[in-house]
């Protein structure tokens, strides 16, 4: 299939990541200066020159796990730390958002517009001219690669991207609330109204004799359509979190994410097969390139801990978790102490046992611990995950 | 009376969900000797099928995983994922002398016994060839021709013609026919003609006996052909921009067009009675009735069926003389059966 699908996946999922983090940083009242630094650093990590060069090289689709790993690195390229559950949730949201955008693109070449929207919206959140410069350079590189592709190449790219998102049916509360997704995790598809560029509104049959138009008739297409309209704003890929930033600061905190009862795990899925050594090498290279940009500063400035979760209290767990992470942080690299606590995804292995304990605790008795919000989602996997220890507790 | 359809009460499912690929549903129709219908769809690197007894009560599942193909045309070890193939198109091919399953994949063409149990032949696509438009190497477009020939298109626009023996795995490449400048998207054939389409919208017409090109249909607009079908010496082609067009193979002239769908059309199929079914990303199945022939074609619209929230990727008539259809959709493992009322 297409060897040009990964940059599209990366830029668009990265855009969603920046939207979500920006919204959470401001919702959790992280000091402006720090929040700005986080966003600048992350965008800078995503679009640094060497990385972009590697990114745009023709390449096969990466396994999902590998892509997630890249985004974990991106998320931790600044002074912000996410715990494992937050990272999972962030990644699920990014995944479903981009799956939605790709599936609902009126025609395959509109994927270009989705990507433009992400790049432009990210621009608005960046506060550093150096980073903006990087973003612009990446954008030029992107255009160079993609602007000349024809319809069918875009179809191939879309089909390849849809391999990547196939069998992922996570329910997202924003989508459910806005009536964009069904309870089964399917996206709601409305295809009436304006038809995509290059299309005619369905409803006309023509017949020809010796190559010349002979007869025209109409038929009922079952829904109303209008001709293409290039002046319409293309919305897929815009920052859907920004509009409600003030009205509903906790937009994301009650985001429902649920895995279906039966997970499809087909062995025809790329993940099931051993990873390719070349691919690993390329991935490591990509990963290293991300790490290189801003590793130096994190020890100097205060670490920002961010949680995507609702601010539910659970003191016992929280204390336990803080204690553990304190020990880890200090024993690891003697970072200057600050009021915030690091919960670092990269320490997963050391934390594994603890995480398991927490999972057990939380998943077994959901409703009792539930916070103020979200009562109707009591049985939901991720609203339960919401109750894993988090950062909001301290500040309130 | 126009046609109308009702969803069959029994659900037919395969094990894995269908990928988003054009013409991603193949069926092996029930016959005198085999009183069961086989349905199959491609799922990433796998092919998943179900055999359903005539009364629908018995369903047997089956899966085929594509074999990874290594350098130097050798088969790579199963665990080496460097050469993981994706299936681009999968078709049950019925030749008078033999029935086979053909998987057109990235990097290779893989031919199996009909039930998928035995790999008969793997043809590795030439990776050193310069490539004009797309950067990937793949096969697409599958058609059986004559008594014993199998035609498969590739990303370069070539059509590879294989000799299929009555028995055994001795499958040989007979010839490679060239004419297209861009990658093949679909192949269909009847007793006299082989029709091929490419990503730029060109359609070529070949004589099946001589395998020589007899006509060229120029692209009508910038949209590529997504699927082909043939009825009564009339070529039907669906396009990425929602159009269906009909051509007379005699003179390569257009004889009909339908502004049919509001999104990309992913598959079309014709039966012997002149019914044409089309499906697309707009969640609609539409059925049309063709009468006359290439010189004097009449088209009427029979019905619309809306399958909620499903991007439809495959459609096939269950029986060439009846109206019942089977449909597949992206991300879903159900094969939807629509019975004419």
TrEMBL record, chain A:
InterPro entries in the cross-refs: OSCP1 (IPR019332)
Comp. bias intervals (Basic and acidic residues): 331-340
Ranges for region Disordered: 313-347, 363-396
Highest taxon in the source lineage: Eukaryota
Entry GO CC: cytoplasm; plasma membrane
Pfam families reported for this sequence: Oscp1 (PF10188)
PANTHER family: OXIDORED-NITRO DOMAIN-CONTAINING PROTEIN, PROTEIN OSCP1
Protein name: Uncharacterized protein
From TrEMBL, chain B:
WD repeats: 177-216
SMART domains: WD40 (SM00320)
Superkingdom per UniProt: Eukaryota
Coiled coil ranges: none
Domain (WD repeat-containing protein 54 beta-propeller): residue spans on this chain: 13-335
Keyword set includes Repeat: yes
Alphabetical keyword list: Repeat, WD repeat
A Pfam family it matches: WDR54
Cited PANTHER family: ANAPHASE-PROMOTING COMPLEX SUBUNIT 4 WD40 DOMAIN-CONTAINING PROTEIN (PTHR19857:SF21), MITOCHONDRIAL DIVISION PROTEIN 1-RELATED (PTHR19857)
Name by which UniProt lists this protein: WD repeat-containing protein 54 beta-propeller domain-containing protein
Source organism of the structure: Adineta ricciae (Rotifer)
């Amino acid at each position: 299939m297409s060897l040009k699908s990964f940059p599209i996946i990366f830029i668009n999922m990265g855009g969603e990541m920046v939207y979500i983090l920006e919204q959470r940083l401001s919702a959790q009242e992280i000091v402006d200066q720090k929040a700005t630094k986080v966003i600048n650093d992350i965008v800078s990590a995503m679009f640094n020159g060497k990385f972009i060069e590697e990114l745009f090289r023709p390449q096969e689709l990466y396994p999902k796990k590998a892509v997630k790993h890249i985004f974990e690195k991106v998320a931790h390229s600044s002074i912000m730390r996410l715990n494992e559950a937050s990272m999972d949730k962030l990644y699920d949201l990014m995944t479903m958002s981009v799956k939605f955008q790709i599936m609902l693109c009126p025609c395959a070449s509109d994927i270009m517009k989705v990507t433009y929207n992400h790049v432009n919206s990210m621009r608005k959140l960046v506060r550093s001219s150096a980073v903006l410069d990087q973003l612009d350079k990446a954008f030029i590189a992107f255009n160079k690669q993609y602007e000349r592709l024809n319809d069918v190449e875009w179809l191939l790219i879309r089909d390849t991207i849809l391999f990547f998102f196939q069998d992922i049916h996570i329910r997202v509360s924003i989508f459910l609330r806005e009536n964009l997704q069904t309870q089964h995790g399917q996206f709601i598809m409305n295809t009436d109204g304006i038809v995509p560029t290059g299309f005619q509104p369905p409803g006309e049959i023509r017949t020809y004799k010796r190559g010349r138009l002979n007869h025209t008739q109409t038929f009922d297409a079952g829904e109303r359509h209008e001709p293409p309209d290039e002046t319409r704003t293309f919305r897929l890929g815009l920052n859907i979190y920004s509009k409600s930033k003030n009205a509903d600061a906790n937009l994301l905190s009650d985001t429902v994410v649920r895995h279906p009862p039966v997970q499809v795990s087909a062995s025809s899925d790329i993940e099931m097969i051993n990873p390719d050594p070349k691919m690993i090498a390329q991935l490591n290279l990509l990963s290293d390139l991300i790490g290189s940009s801003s590793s130096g500063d994190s020890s100097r400035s205060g670490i920002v801990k961010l949680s995507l979760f609702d601010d539910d209290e659970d003191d016992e767990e929280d204390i336990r978790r803080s204690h553990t992470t304190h020990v880890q942080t200090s024993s690891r690299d003697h970072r200057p102490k600050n009021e915030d606590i690091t919960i670092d995804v990269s320490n997963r292995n050391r934390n594994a046992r603890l995480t398991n304990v927490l999972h057990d605790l939380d998943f077994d008795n959901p409703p009792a611990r539930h916070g103020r919000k979200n009562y109707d989602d009591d049985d939901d996997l991720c609203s339960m995950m919401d109750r894993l220890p988090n950062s909001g507790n301290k500040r309130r | 009376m126009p046609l109308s359809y009702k969803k069959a009460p029994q659900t037919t499912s395969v094990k894995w969900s269908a990928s988003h690929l054009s013409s991603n549903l193949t069926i092996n129709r029930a016959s005198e000797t085999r009183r069961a219908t086989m349905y199959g769809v491609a799922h990433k690197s796998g092919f998943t099928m179900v055999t359903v007894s005539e009364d629908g009560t018995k369903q047997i599942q089956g899966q085929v995983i594509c074999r990874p193909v290594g350098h130097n045309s050798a088969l790579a070890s199963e665990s080496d994922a460097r050469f993981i193939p994706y299936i681009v198109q999968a078709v049950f091919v019925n030749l008078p002398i033999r029935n086979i399953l053909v998987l057109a994949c990235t990097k290779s063409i893989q031919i199996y016994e009909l039930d998928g149990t035995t790999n008969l032949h793997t043809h590795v696509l030439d990776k050193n060839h310069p490539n004009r438009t797309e950067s990937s190497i793949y096969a697409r477009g599958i058609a059986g021709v004559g008594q014993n020939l199998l035609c498969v298109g590739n990303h370069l626009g070539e059509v590879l013609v294989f000799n299929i023996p009555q028995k055994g795995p001795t499958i040989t490449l007979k010839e490679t026919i060239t004419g297209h400048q861009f990658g093949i998207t679909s192949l269909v054939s009847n007793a006299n003609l082989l029709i091929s389409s490419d990503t730029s919208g060109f359609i070529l017409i070949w004589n099946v006996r001589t395998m020589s090109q007899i006509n060229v249909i120029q692209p009508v607009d910038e949209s590529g052909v997504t699927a082909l079908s043939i009825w009564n010496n009339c070529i039907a082609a669906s396009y990425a921009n929602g159009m269906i067009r009909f051509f007379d193979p005699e003179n390569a002239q257009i004889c009909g067009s339908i502004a049919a769908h509001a999104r990309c059309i992913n598959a079309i199929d014709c039966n012997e009675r002149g019914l044409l079914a089309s499906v697309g990303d707009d969640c609609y199945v539409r059925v049309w009735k063709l009468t006359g022939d290439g010189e004097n074609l009449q088209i009427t619209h029979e019905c619309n069926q809306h399958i909620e929230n499903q991007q439809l990727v495959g459609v096939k008539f269950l029986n060439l003389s009846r109206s019942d259809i089977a449909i597949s959709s992206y991300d879903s493992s159900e094969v939807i059966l629509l019975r004419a009322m």
